[in-house]
Amino acid sequence: MSSIVTCEIAPTDGDVTVFGHSVVNDPYAVRGLVGVCEQFDFLYPKMSAKEHLVLFAGLRGVSRESVAETFDKWLESVDLHNLQDRYSSGFFGGIRRRLSLA
Q1: pLDDT, tens digit, for every residue of 15-64?
Q2: Is the separation of the CB atoms in 31 and 6 below 8 Å?
Q3: Of 10, 18, 62, 91, which cross-links 57 as Cys (Cβ 3.0–4.6 Å)?
């Protein structure tokens, strides 16, 4: 089911809506609303927390004008403001997980 909600695969029958957007008819909008936090942390060791979030904001389609605001909101949501300039290679498990979640 999660593969359908994240638009990785299409449903064989029917449809699913996410905040009013159809996974069949509007998958790009759904992908912008839904994220997946896998069991493993997909982080680049030589990138800071800030660089990760700016990169993923761009991949999620956040406009350049909104990146700073979005970045701050994501950092605040996982309480990582004080670590934003540190490389992810220096983070322990819980911090890595919080960054992945953001």
Answers
A1: 999 999 999 999 989 888 887 777 777 899 999 999 999 998 888 888 99
A2: yes
A3: 62
Report the percentage of the chain scoring pLDDT > 70.
100
Query: ∠ CA 18-13-15 to the nearest 5 degrees?
Result: 15
- The rounded distance, in Å, linking the Cα atoms of 60 and 4 is 18
22, β-bridge pairs? 17
Give CA–CA dist 74/55, Å, rounded.
13
Which residue's structure tokens are 């322990």?
Answer: 92
Instruction: Give the CA-trace dihedral at 59, 61, 65, 67, to 10 degrees.
Output: -40
Q: Is 36 left (phi over 0), alpha (psi -120 to 50) or beta?
A: beta
**What distance lies between CA 28 and its chain's CA centroid?**
14
